[in-house]
Write a structure and sequence with these properties.
The protein has 18 helices and no strands. The chain is mainly alpha-helical and 478 residues long. The chain is globular, with a radius of gyration of 22 Å.
Length: 478
């Protein structure tokens, strides 16, 4: 693996040079999205540490309710990339509309799941005050945020699939500005607006998400007006595309759901150590997520280029794309590790104001060493993220799901055991959680090395195109 990662041939157009134009806008876009969550919690830190922790845990829980269905819809990106690489441009809008149809049908199911999930705050043993705050934020996100998230996913997936991720970046930037403004006005009650605290954080976030959806919808309509994308009634139900979306999207959705629910369970267990521990974990996860989402931006680029190259029957380029993406993610995560090791006290101090009468002294003692260890988690996770993106681009979503299940739930189970059975301290359980993350990269790289992902066909159209190509080659040879 190391020799491939350092191979100079990756400087070609199917290596890092090809990844960056797609990855960079997605990295910036993910940073914008993370900044919104980051600032929400930062604003609420000046209201109370329970408010800050409740915002994070309730947001993660509402995301868990949606993540399976959003994961299925997100496979629109890989399908669009395959069609785009095969120059079947008219298929791309059809795929998006089937994804949006699936999103609308999923919303009632999300609401039903949410009625059960809202009880998780009580089951986790949180304080009465924190439960009340968590339930408030959760209801806003469940009824409004989940629908907007489901509809946004296929639209954004279209632009990532065709490689025009700058559209997503611009939309995310406007959305971030709306979020920063209205959360400030509504949380603190500035310039005549009511002081709504955690309710204000939820409303500001929903307004920002709505703006993002509107911008993406307008951009999608403009893009698909061009001649190459035109087809007859692309919004009509297409059984073949829907079947493909479900076949390859369901394992992706299950992977997202199982990993998110495991992560959410882990956070809930850590929050059970008390209010100071909950605040410390929230601070560390804020920085961890801010650092993590750029890795996902590279993952999107890997999935896109692997899909496009496989659609164009260029398997060597697809392989080099995966290794180049892993190299890029490792370099980035090493940089973040150095920051977390070198200035943890400064990073923690941003969330622990000395003014306002809130005692954050114990929170600081917990958060600083936890942040140092979090940098190692990113190193291990960067390998997993890179090669799981390659597997999804190749259609090997079932194995990506299986490995994701083993990886994320082994982390969650280890935390449960160290916390409740072996009675480890918060720091002890945290270290075990970090070190356990090495399993994900090891397993996903093993599956990637088998090469099975290179030969998976997403639809009958690909089989037909391959048969035509073989026939034409035989005629030429004769």
């Amino acid at each position: 693996m190391s020799s491939i990662l350092t191979d100079r041939s990756q400087r070609s157009t199917d290596g890092i040079a090809a990844l960056i134009p797609i990855a960079l806008p997605m990295i910036i876009s993910n940073i914008f999205d993370t900044v919104m969550m980051f600032v929400d919690r930062l604003y609420l830190a000046y209201v109370g540490k329970e408010h800050m922790a409740a915002c994070m845990n309730a947001g993660l829980t509402s995301g868990t309710c949606t993540v399976f269905f959003a994961g299925v819809a997100s496979y629109v990106s890989a399908m669009v990339a395959r069609s785009y690489g095969a120059r079947q441009f008219s298929q791309c809008p059809r795929i998006v509309y089937q994804g949006m149809r699936f999103a609308l049908f999923s919303y009632p199911l999300v609401l039903l799941i949410g009625l059960i999930a809202i009880n998780s705050f009580t089951w986790a043993g949180h304080s009465n005050m924190q439960i009340q705050l968590e339930e408030t934020y959760f209801r806003w996100m469940l009824f409004g945020g989940t629908l907007l998230s489901l509809l946004r996913t296929p639209l954004a997936s279209f632009f990532s699939g065709i490689g025009k991720t700058s559209v997503i970046m611009k939309a995310s930037f406007v959305s971030m500005l709306v979020n920063l403004l209205f959360n400030y006005l509504l949380i603190y009650g500035k310039f005549g607006f009511p002081r709504l605290e955690i309710n204000g954080a939820a409303i500001g976030t929903l307004l920002a998400s709505l703006v993002l959806n509107i911008i993406l919808a307008i951009a999608f309509q403009r893009e698909t007006r061009s001649k190459e994308y035109r087809s007859v009634c692309p919004w009509r139900f297409d059984a073949a595309i829907s079947k493909t979306l479900l076949k390859f999207g369901i394992p992706t959705g299950m992977d997202y759901f199982l990993s998110t629910s495991a992560f959410n369970l882990t956070i809930a267990v850590f929050h059970g150590y008390g209010a100071d521990a909950a605040a410390a974990v929230t601070i560390v996860m804020n920085w961890d997520l801010l650092a993590f989402f750029p890795l996902q931006g590279v993952q999107v680029a890997i999935t896109t280029l692997v899909g496009q190259n496989l659609g164009a029957k260029n398997i060597p380029a697809a392989t080099r794309t995966a290794y180049s993406g892993c190299k890029l993610n490792l370099l980035y995560s090493l940089f973040i590790l150095l920051i977390f090791l070198g200035m943890p006290s400064l990073l923690v101090s941003i969330f622990t104001p000395e003014s306002g009468g809130i005692d954050y002294s114990q929170v600081k003692k917990l958060a600083v060493p936890m942040l140092r260890w979090a940098g190692f988690y990113l190193i291990f996770d960067s390998v997993y993220i890179s090669f799981s993106g390659a597997l999804r681009g190749g259609g090997d979503t079932l194995w990506a799901m299986i490995i994701g299940l083993i990886f994320h739930w082994s982390l969650a189970i280890n935390v449960l055991l160290t916390t409740y059975l072996f009675k480890f301290s918060l720091m002890g359980s945290w270290i075990v959680w970090v070190l356990s993350s090495v399993t994900g990269g090891t397993l996903i790289y093993w599956r990637f090395r088998t090469g099975k992902w290179k030969h998976i066909k997403l639809s009958s159209n690909e089989n037909e195109a391959e048969e035509i190509d073989i026939a034409s080659q035989l005629q030429t040879s004769n």
